């Protein structure tokens, strides 16, 4: 009887540690993707394609980017109200989304999602990313980024089968987002209590030459956190 109680307590402690690992690394993964998307290369290339088509829309978008570049810090999980230039920039982005200019509208929706996420309005951010990933006319690269961000921001609370289904579209050797998708899938494994499956994915990330350095470092950290002998 006593042994059964000790075993149940031990299993519960392990499960709680795994849940803590999932919460911790879900946040790290989200930050990593935001940093990746913040790079201007892809968006600048997209703008160059559409600049000749609509100078006014492009100028409005670039101005909105500058206006929403620095947002107030989120405090206590509450949504931060926007004022002044930041609010004007968000209004401009939303107007571009509704403008019908397909190329700039998609970029505007991506930036709108980034702004909403930064200010703590997860519902609005998820809706914007979902709109991009569901738009068959949007550039595939932007659709993939939107899919990844949509998943990353729900790793600790979202419907697991739906998240796995969408992440599976981004996984696969040679894919641009395979490392981050596999990392996210490992976090879902931890969330469900499948430590062995998580370790397999993380080990593969550590051993693959294609894995970005940041993802590899986080994978090593997760493996250490999941080690039953740790702590």
Structure, explained:
It is a single chain. The protein is mainly α and 231 residues long. Helices cover 73% and strands 0% of the residues. α3 (55-67) packs antiparallel against α4, α3 (55-67) runs parallel beside α5 and α6 (122-133) packs antiparallel against α7 (140-152). Mean pLDDT is 78; it is low at 1-13 and 34-42.
Secondary-structure blueprint of this entry?
Elements lengths: L1 H37 L2 H11 L3 H13 L16 H14 L4 H17 L3 H12 L6 H13 L7 H9 L9 H15 L2 H13 L5 H14 L5
Helix pairs in contact: 1-7, 1-9, 1-11, 3-4, 3-5, 4-5, 5-6, 6-7, 8-9, 9-10, 10-11
Q: What attributes does this structure have?
A:
mainly alpha, 11 helices, elongated
Low-confidence stretches: 1-13, 34-42
**How would you characterize the largest beta sheet?**
none
Distance between the termini: 27 Å
**How many β strands by DSSP?**
0
Helix content: over 70%
| Oligomeric state of the chains present here | single chain
Radius of gyration (Å) = 20 Å
| Percent in strands | under 5%
* Structural category: mainly alpha
N-to-C SSE string, H for helix and E for strand: HHHHHHHHHHH
Count of alpha/pi helices = 11
What is the arithmetic mean of pLDDT? 78
Described by the principal axes of the CA atoms, the overall outline is elongated
